[in-house]
Request: fold
Amino acid sequence: MISLKRLIFIIFLLITSPLLSMPAFSAEAQPVEQQAAVSAAESGSLTHQMWRNIMLGNLKIEADHTAVDALILQGNIPVTYEYVATLMRTPNAFGEGPACIVCHSSNDPKRSYRGLDLSTCEGILRGATEAPVKPAIVPGEPMKSRVVQKLRNNRMPLGVSFLAPIDTDTINGIKNWIDAGAKEDDNFKNTILPLFSTPKAFGSDVACISCHSSFRDPPSFHGVNLTSYKGIMKGAFSKSNAKLGKPPVPIVIPHDAANSPLYQRLIENRMPPGIGPNDESDHPNTHLLMRWIEQGAWCK
Reply:
């Protein structure tokens, strides 16, 4: 039976047979596949670059997800706003759930949740207009863009209901502690720290330290350690980022609970509504949206 690679090669020869006559290497010196790959590279087009990488074993396409990475992200193909606009209008674009514009289609908070308009490029760049006003996009910074965070970050603890209240005594306790400066005082030791080891403290049977009790991932997700003041204030990815020469990612910003991931994760649901906590956060469309933001989030 003919292999997929051989079949691709035969199709390529039928379409671009003149490439075989290009004087890259002699027929006696190189296999015909490598001759075509080298000649293809000299043409400079994306198609020929892709062909060269396939033939030389530098590109392996196994499924839709890897295809997006290999063909678009690695190929540096610009992601246009037209595609982003399509994503915002398409159900299940980022995982099972309604299209984004069903809930976010106006900057009027009386018509659209948070006054967020995802139906136009200008609306996306404007962000939420309901207090507290927050941008949805930080051009050039996908990981700092709230629209990406909302698509990727699960509400904590895992399994808590989408409609669970966000103003409980325990959640407000975390908020007030951070806004007061996040100090290692008696309030922290006697009231705040025990919450992380208490099941049902934040609406789930799972205690926070069941998943976040070490600086290493695994066993502790994102290297978040909620067993001590030092661990909480060190933040996420302290071990892995240290190997890369990067600082940890803070999860507590003293005096600013609204922008502290520790508090955000207790009150903000992952989008779209209905997506399960086990659904992967690295959906290919999310990566394409991130690339658009990385490229500058241009409205063109």
